[in-house]
Amino acid sequence: MRPVVVICLSLLVSLVFVGCSLTAVSGGKEIFIEAGERDGELYFEPDVVTVPVGARVTFVIKNVGTVDHEFESIEKGEAGIEEIIIPPGRTRKVTWTAPSEPTSYPVYCDLPGHRAAGMEFRLVVVDDADSGESSP
Prior knowledge:
The protein has one helix at about 1-20, and strands spanning about 30-40, 40-45, 50, 55-65, 70-75, 85, 90-95, 105-110, 120-125. By secondary structure, the protein is mainly beta. The chain has one domain: Cupredoxins -  blue copper proteins (Immunoglobulin-like), CATH 2.60.40. The strands form two sheets. It has a five-stranded mixed beta sheet with strand order 3-9-8-5-6, with no helix packed on it. The protein has a four-stranded mixed beta sheet with strand order 2-1-4-7, with no helix packed on it. A hairpin with a 2-residue loop joins strand 1 and strand 2 (about 40-45). The longest helix has 20 residues, at about 1-20. The radius of gyration is 19 Å and the shape is globular.
């Protein structure tokens, strides 16, 4: 009887480790954003992201540039995206829940001169029926 207990415990521990290593966005999806510089211009790609009201999404922001970039929204508090800094060559994630009402606002890099140089995209929150939940 003892070997059965050992096998069951081993399987249970294995399942716990497998569960911990999976990367899943609970009730949501990942949206990939590229940040960088190209031909003297600063950018985020895509330049428009559309999500349905109440959606929980994880932004995966990769800085392919040579300088630090920020990622934040003009909205603050519950509806906003808190500022994060992404060093060159690094990727950062931030999970966010869209507001319960349709809206639209910019997400940008607020480092000196970056936003003015084009480092901004439009985040659009739409009714589920209008959506199509888009993003590359």
